[in-house]
Amino acid sequence: MFETLSDRLTSVFSSLRGKGRLSEEDINATAREIRLALLEADVALPVVRDFIARIKERARGEEVSKALNPAQQVIKIVNEELVEVLGGETRQIRFAKNPPTVIMLAGLQGAGKTTLAGKLAKWLSADRNTPLLVAADLQRPNAVTQLQVVGERAGTPVFAPEPGNGVGDPVEVARESIEHARRNNHNVVIIDTAGRLGVDTEMMRQAADIRDAVRPDEIVFVVDAMIGQDAVNTAQAFLDGVGYDAVALTKLDGDARGGAALSIRHLTGRPIMFASTGEKLEDFDLFHPDRMASRILD
Ligand code: GDP
Question: Which family does it belong to (predicted)?
């Protein structure tokens, strides 16, 4: 991801190199090129507009005119603004004062929720947590089994409705899982909820019902970064329908243009907390805006 954007920005900056002072025309031309590079990377228009306005304003300011190396200073500004648009600080998990900490995952089918649940469980376990995975996706016949497979790979127990008891009520399962976690000393509960292929009122209502029943400490909206501009629309629909505290971006290993990653924070006001970068359980980390910005400008 970001290869094209990265190449484009490198060439924009190389045309600035060696310039002693930057004229208004230099600044405008640079801003124009950065704008095109961002649009080409599928970054949403309002985000591009604000980004470019900030770059121009700062490039015309003292920090550049007084710099020994103005081009270097512009690169520094772009880097800082990229970090900002990606969310600034790394967003840490907010653990509950009284365990268990409840983390609920919501998002479309195929976004990567179940995989992310396993990754998160494994990552938390490596840091002396004792997570419990909860199968509250009872819509798809295979979903519970899939979470059980992921749980086994992560070495994390899975709370699911008893087989033979019918389909079960996801709200009830979620509620019971909290009690189960308390009794069995699980300090984190990760709830995998049902998704559909498209945004759908029934799915939203179910997620909202689970939310109301368990009052999660963190609701995390999981979104496939490969779906481009659609990621932003889906993010808005979930914000209105369920609400969430943070975003998990999945499939960052793909070759999509990366616009979702650069747009979502700015448009939803919610930080990106997790980054999923492959199909293996280890391909996971907290999202670090500074590292991502450095990768783009590498
Ligand atoms: P869910 O329907 O939201 O629970 O999505 P799944 O966890 O079942 O993931 C859907 C597909 O995406 C599966 O084939 C996963 O292996 C794949 N997947 C999930 N996360 C990633 C990722 O970060 N990178 C890649 N390349 N594939 C992923």
Answer: Belongs to the GTP-binding SRP family. SRP54 subfamily.
